[in-house]
From TrEMBL:
Source organism: Amnibacterium soli
Record keywords: Cell membrane, Membrane, Transmembrane, Transmembrane helix, Transport
Source domain of life: Bacteria
Subcellular location, principal: membrane
Membrane-crossing residue ranges in chain numbering: 12-37, 43-66, 78-97, 103-125, 137-157, 169-189, 219-235, 255-274, 286-306, 312-336, 357-376, 382-402
Residue span(s) of domain Major facilitator superfamily (MFS) profile: 11-412
Protein name: Major facilitator superfamily (MFS) profile domain-containing protein
Tagged with keyword Protein biosynthesis: no
One Pfam family, short name: MFS_1
Keyword Membrane: yes
Gene3D superfamilies the UniProt entry points to: MFS general substrate transporter like domains
Length: 412
């Protein structure tokens, strides 16, 4: 049984430490992908957009392959392999002097990253007892956001398009922190449960394929809800939201920056208290509350765009909207990785986590293009209505999901 192998000692602490270290490095570079490709490497913006989309396609394929590989050779080994690939891609980006090398580094980085997080999510199942996994995932999410915030602050003070060397420096540091994470895992969790593959003699005759996973109707329904949350939630917050704000009188670069700072602060401050306060709630109810928080955030955004509203009031609402969205993210983090691992049998754990992680890149193919059509159609307020309605429908889907989940999955 997993519970007999689980421990909250060295393996989980090593994973948590590594996640913090690499998130600081990621925070140094995360906001600057397009700026680096265009402003430093000279790639035209449309081509840069295509390169990022192509990297996402490669990442999606690598995610599927990584799920199979994790079930065959072990979650820990695949996580280290992915970190090595991610570090190599980032260091190629850091040393790039022309577009082809930069795009190659981006592709390698994306594929490596797509191997890392599904494997790490599965590893937590072996490192933490089932009744504490929701808190473990929430703690890791909070720690990572703290690291991202630190990295972003450092980048804001050091990076400048007038100094291309500053970009090379932060990408080199990002690659170095990823390599450190690989070493932490290699020495911190090697030979522990989940590092290598497990033999499942009783299930030897049971197929271990993605088709077997997709026969789990509850898991497929969960994936549908999670994908909808990403399409109408995170994929809108990470780009389209700022584009909408730029179109309204109260919007400015300063307001956008403050809003994203409020989002990060809400996650850092509220993550662990929220996990504790909601611990007795069913997991499907947390999905409902997350969707409703997203709907409230988009309503606040739409209200901030009303004509005649003072600039100060509009700016305050915009900052508050992403703070509320961050609150919704704290409700999602105890569920998004714990629920699929509660459903997954050991022999398919890698594939379950791979499909769970695949919802994010898939949402990138749907959410931003949808927003582009709505925002560019001459009536940007329509974007607010569509994404708000999407979040409300997602909340209804989460209610229906809760009716088919078992008690073991719903309650940690």
């Amino acid at each position: 049984m997993i519970e007999r192998q689980a421990t909250e000692g060295r393996p989980f602490r090593a994973t948590l430490l590594g996640a913090f270290v690499t998130s600081v490095g990621l925070g140094l570079t995360l906001p600057f992908t397009f700026v680096y490709l265009n402003g430093v490497l000279g790639l035209p913006l449309p081509v840069a957009g295509f390169a990022v989309a192509a990297a996402a396609v490669l990442a999606l394929g690598a995610t599927a392959a990584g799920g199979v590989l994790a079930d065959r050779i072990g979650l820990g080994r695949v996580a280290v392999l992915g970190l090595v690939g991610q570090a190599a891609g980032t260091l190629v980006l850091a040393s790039a002097g022309e577009p082809v090398m930069g795009v190659t580094g981006l592709a390698v980085l994306s594929m490596g990253n797509s191997l890392v997080w599904p494997s790490l999510n599965g590893l937590v199942t072996y490192q933490v007892p089932s009744q504490r996994r929701s808190r473990a995932f929430a703690l890791r999410f909070g720690v990572m956001n703290a690291g991202l915030g630190i990295g972003s602050l450092i980048a804001a003070a050091t990076v400048s398009t007038s100094r291309p060397s500053s970009f090379h420096l932060v990408y080199a540091l990002d690659g170095a922190t990823t390599a450190v994470f690989a070493l932490i895992l290699l020495f911190g969790i090697r030979s522990t449960a989940g590092w290598a593959s497990h033999q499942h003699r009783a299930d030897a005759a049971v197929p271990t394929t993605y088709r077997s996973v997709l026969r789990d109707r509850s898991f497929v329904a969960y994936l549908a809800v999670l994908l909808a949350l990403a399409i109408f939630g995170s994929s809108q917050a990470e780009g389209p939201w700022a584009a909408f704000v730029a179109l309204i009188p109260g919007g400015s670069g300063q307001v956008i920056g403050l809003a994203f700072a409020a989002n990060t602060a809400a996650i850092i401050v509220l993550q662990l208290p929220m996990e504790r306060w909601t611990r007795r709630l069913r997991r499907s109810r947390l999905l409902v509350l997350c969707a409703l928080a997203g709907a409230v955030a988009w309503v606040l955004t739409g209200t901030a765009s009303l004509p005649g509203l003072p600039a100060a009031a509009s700016g305050t609402m915009l900052v508050l909207s992403l703070g509320v969205f961050g609150l919704g993210e704290t409700l999602l983090s105890p569920v998004i990785n714990a629920m699929p691992n509660a459903m997954a049998p050991d022999r398919l754990r890698g594939r379950y986590n791979a499909l769970n992680s695949a919802t994010y890149p898939v949402s990138k193919f749907i959410g931003p293009p949808l927003a582009g059509v709505l925002l560019g159609g001459g009536a940007p307020g329509l974007w607010v209505g569509v994404v708000t309605l999407g979040m409300l429908l997602t909340a209804g889907g989460a209610v229906l999901l809760g009716r088919q989940l078992t008690t073991a999955v719903e309650h940690p």
